Amino acid sequence: MAVPRRYHLVTLGCPKNDVDSAHLARLLEGGELVPVADPGEADAIIVNTCGFIEQSQAQSMAAVRELAAAKREGQVLIVAGCMTQLYGRQVREETPGIDHVFGVGQWHEVARLLQVDVDAIYDIPESNVRVEGPSAYLKISDGCDAPCTFCVIPKIKGGLRSAPAGLLVREARRLVEAGAKELVLVGQDTTAWGEDLGMPVGSGLPGLLRMLSEAAGPETWLRLMYAYPSRVTPELIGTMAELPNVVHYLDVPLQHGSEAVLRRMKRPHNLERVYRFIEELRRAMPDIVLRTSFIAGFPGETEAEFEELLAFARAVEFDHAGCFTYSRQQWTGAYEMEGQVPDEVKAERRARFMEQQQAISARRAARFIGRTLEMLVEGEGEDEDGLPVVAGRTYREAPEVDGLVFARGRARPGERVRVAIEDASEYDLFGRVVRERPGRGRVRAISP
Ligand code: SF4
């Protein structure tokens, strides 16, 4: 292969895959390769695939086939990531034009293949980061030891591996110096952080949060995603409430609201405990915003069990809740389970869930009308009358998964402004930018 100079990288799947791609991009650019938006101009085309569920595999395969079909002489096509970790040989056999196949966590090998001297590059192979506007994802761990019967992640990514605290602290500082205003902590299960380093169950994350809070400084938000229900401990809740820069937001994927289904999923199934920690979270942080996600149509789910899920979601009133239809996944415990639910039933149940949740989310969002919130500006533009408008997120919205806040007024992307909330829909908030008048403690609108 001639020395490659330009690369085109396609990333499919979840934010964690984006973080992995950012890691690869850092390695390649450290080796002086230049990214190009047009695959036709690249010497090397790399696809970071997703193998989470059937739809994502199909999407990854479609992208690979398209790139393979358009490949020109001299180009090298590399396919890596979760899907090839599972089905590498098959993918290669089925798609002529693929030159190399890698699994997950083999970014150094990909870079070496492209003649990058990886040993000469400053790298953070374990923590990995991705900067997205004023926010940066900080992956604190990878892999998972949980036995969830619907999930293929442990098979793809392997067991839990926590990034060392010192490395994460250094990385947090570097990101803040580079302009990040928010660090979003991710991992398959962030609350398991440290267990593989010998820390007692659930005890690592509160300590890590303290270190990162100090390293990031008071002006940087820290946001916690993907908490595991049985690891939302009083210590974690107390730490979140105490640290001023940890936003009052928690994403806890709960997967179901029926104990029988949770048992079959091999998930924590004591719903009393779940109600209790939600109550504790709300007592410690009355303004906390809760996000969760559920699965409709898990094998054997009866109508009565699904109604338990609806009742549970009504009782808790999550601010944001997503619902996926169950996707049958090879190499998981649920794959061979009896009572696979027909697709139409799954879709109908999901639609019913979403209809109920939209009303709940709208009610929860309406609580913010009349309040003034800090907003991190992500973009600016004009409304239909040509007046300036900005869009961004407050502590209530995580990047990419939740809604946005739209406010009349002027501000620059990356700036932190205060927004008086005037209206709300089920996903978004609407208002106007206000600024503190120095020394008077009053606010004035900077635009009509
Ligand atoms: S905790 Fe999350 S990543 Fe781990 S097995 Fe369960 S669903 Fe999969």
Averaging pLDDT over every residue, what do you get? 90
Number of domains: 3
Tell me about the largest β-sheet: 7 strands, mixed
| Gap from first CA to last CA | 61 Å
Which architecture name of the largest domain does CATH use? Alpha-Beta Horseshoe
Derived from helix and strand composition plus strand pairing, the structural class reads alpha/beta
What do these coordinates show?
This protein has 448 residues and is of the alpha/beta class. It has 3 domains: 6-120, Methylthiotransferase, N-terminal domain (Rossmann fold, 3-Layer(aba) Sandwich), CATH 3.40.50.12160; 129-366, tm_1862 like domain (pyruvate-formate lyase- activating enzyme); 372-445, OB fold (Dihydrolipoamide Acetyltransferase, E2P) (Beta Barrel), CATH 2.40.50. The chain contains 12 helices and 20 strands. The strands form 4 sheets. The protein has a 7-stranded mixed sheet, with helices on both faces. Residues 437-448 have low confidence and may be disordered. Iron/sulfur cluster (SF4) binds next to helix 5. It is an enzyme of class 2 (transferase). Its EC number is 2.8.4.4. GO terms for molecular function: 4 iron, 4 sulfur cluster binding; aspartic acid methylthiotransferase activity; metal ion binding; protein methylthiotransferase activity.
